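Morning. Coffee machine broken again, so started the prediction first thing and wrote up yesterday's gels while waiting. Chain of 322 residues, entered below exactly as on the submission form.
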Amino acid sequence: MKNMLKKGILFCVVVLCGALLFAGGSKDSSKSMLKVGVVQLVEHVALDASYRGFIDGLAEGGYVNGQNVKIDFQNAQGEQANCVTIANKLINDKSALILAITTPAAQAVANLTSAIPILITAVTDPESAKLVKSNALPGTNVTGTSDLTPVAAQIRLIKEILPGAKTIGLLYCSSEQNSKFQIDIAKTACQENGFAFIEATVSNSNEIQQVTQSLVGKVDALYVPTDNMIAAGMPTVAMVANSAKTPIFCGEEGMVNNGGFATYGINYYELGKLTGKMAVDILKNGKKPAEMPIQYVEKFDFTVNEQVAKELGIIVPAGLGK
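Came back before lunch.
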């Protein structure tokens, strides 16, 4: 009986030690995970899709969130000041890599660290945003993917669908470098296609409804680039424009799905996935952002909101986007 008691105590000690060892191992395993920080300017369909694509791109390269990498996702809720606060947090947490989604988010991180690799996405022209020395050879700790859409083709799309249109309203946020870059291209494309244009800018989301209303009756169609503030406020833009029978030609598919009329643009999920593959090259293969050119999605998709087309009484010519 005494021997049996000793054996029982010994067995319990062994089990307890094993449990402690296992717990200690789990803790160490968690600590050894690579940290990847993510700062996203605002929540809307395109940016959310790019983040999902990034996660899947990482996973395809062997980096699965919660298994061998810990992803800290932070949303700045559209506030530049929040981007800076988040960037500081991700840097202080010693992230192995930081993903910045949109130009304001990328600028916030890049201004605070030159040591941690920074990947960017949903940035139209990293070079003009002063994030890299050149898009072909970044020369800094920043690289990633551009969401430059075929702006000239999007303006031509207006002419193909609305051959009688004369004046286009260009609606965008005045503080977004991405938007200014695209609007400059759009202006040239308008001139080439014989369109007059009226620029209308907003500085905050509260102005979207009023500024959109100011264009009603003055333009035959609206063009909105991949502008983060307008994208987040698309339901408001659509409410005003569609009720006035003014079609909205958009920079990307998510804006069309939120009440826009049509686009010829990139797939943001695929853009994010491409960014995730670049992250794998940095984390696994030791590549340096300075030597990695900015990447672009080469395939463009034609998207039309059939419900809006019906409401506006617009017949889309067959064969567009093919």
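Residues 2-31 form the longest helix (30 residues). Going to sketch it on the whiteboard this afternoon.
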